[in-house]
């Protein structure tokens, strides 16, 4: 296995290690990025996706791994941050063989990286990985313990952050607002279910028309195209599809006063957090909002019970409050404030490590 070690600097957040891999027999290729191990093993899921080049896969993994480091630190988990991307081969392939090869790469990292599912991967894939390494979570739950699909926990965390954001920016409760949910996958649909139960009105966009129709039927949701959703008459925009949805054009079109959703890396460019604040939109940082899933994954790996996982996921609301308070005090955007809290936590762990060494 070829390993690349890179210098570490707490301000510019370069990754600690980049591990490209290729297995000729199965056709598996991709990269694992260990962004930071300051707080513990680098934890973050494995994405299985079509990338046009190795370079695109590395760039995506670097970005996602940094997000995981911030997310895990902010959620107060004893984990650093990492991410794997496995390239979906163009030619016909044996999916299980790909994930076995990936599992062997994870095993060689000897616990410095813990994987789980992400976009394009599921519980069945992680069971294959578990045949090669024990450094994997997202396996079926056993004996009422945390495990399995983390999406309902992610949705629960999003609701906690959204409640705080809506009170802060709109002086309203979730029962008073209209939420535009983009993407009705694992998290988006569960989020609609929770919001509907709390009395919120819903507008949804989802390319799978039968799923959108189900949301209309079950939640009385209005269905729109994804593009139209940005300028819909909604109080909250909840991105729950893929990342990069908030580019300059989308920010200019956005009508909602609060953005709070599950998608990773919602901002196409970090500077857009400032642009959103200038437009008086409260952007709830994605890596704070969507921590519920990784909290469940951590609980599974560390042997917590379900009520401990729940307590920690409910804590997303308190973290949102703390972040908004720091942002107000220091004149920062919430995005910058959340990043500052996470980076301070990592820097502190590194200082403790340095003193102990
Ligand atoms: P998913 O693949 O189950 O759902 C994504 C949904 O978005 C699909 O239904 C898809 O059809 C839809 N979609 C795709 N393009 C769209 C578009 N242009 N407009 C509207 N809908 C579109 O994924 P998921 O597990 O629900 O995760 C959603 C997002 O949340 C991802 O960005 C993921 O990285 C992030 N996230 C998920 C979790 C989790 O626990 N699953 C945790 C943290 C972050």
Automatic annotation (TrEMBL):
<keyword id="KW-0547">Nucleotide-binding</keyword>
<feature type="active site" description="Proton donor/acceptor">
    <location>
        <position position="83"/>
    </location>
</feature>
<keyword id="KW-0560">Oxidoreductase</keyword>
<dbReference type="Pfam" id="PF02812">
    <property type="entry name" value="ELFV_dehydrog_N"/>
</dbReference>
<dbReference type="InterPro" id="IPR006097">
    <property type="entry name" value="Glu/Leu/Phe/Val/Trp_DH_dimer"/>
</dbReference>
<dbReference type="GO" id="GO:0006520">
    <property type="term" value="P:amino acid metabolic process"/>
</dbReference>
<dbReference type="InterPro" id="IPR016211">
    <property type="entry name" value="Glu/Phe/Leu/Val/Trp_DH_bac/arc"/>
</dbReference>
<protein>
    <submittedName>
        <fullName>Leucine dehydrogenase</fullName>
        <ecNumber>1.4.1.9</ecNumber>
    </submittedName>
</protein>
<dbReference type="InterPro" id="IPR006095">
    <property type="entry name" value="Glu/Leu/Phe/Val/Trp_DH"/>
</dbReference>
<dbReference type="InterPro" id="IPR036291">
    <property type="entry name" value="NAD(P)-bd_dom_sf"/>
</dbReference>
<dbReference type="InterPro" id="IPR006096">
    <property type="entry name" value="Glu/Leu/Phe/Val/Trp_DH_C"/>
</dbReference>
<comment type="similarity">
    <text>Belongs to the Glu/Leu/Phe/Val dehydrogenases family.</text>
</comment>
<dbReference type="InterPro" id="IPR046346">
    <property type="entry name" value="Aminoacid_DH-like_N_sf"/>
</dbReference>
<dbReference type="Pfam" id="PF00208">
    <property type="entry name" value="ELFV_dehydrog"/>
</dbReference>
<feature type="binding site">
    <location>
        <begin position="183"/>
        <end position="188"/>
    </location>
    <ligand>
        <name>NAD(+)</name>
    </ligand>
</feature>
<feature type="domain" description="Glutamate/phenylalanine/leucine/valine/L-tryptophan dehydrogenase C-terminal">
    <location>
        <begin position="148"/>
        <end position="354"/>
    </location>
</feature>
<keyword id="KW-0520">NAD</keyword>
<dbReference type="GO" id="GO:0050049">
    <property type="term" value="F:L-leucine dehydrogenase activity"/>
</dbReference>
<dbReference type="GO" id="GO:0000166">
    <property type="term" value="F:nucleotide binding"/>
</dbReference>
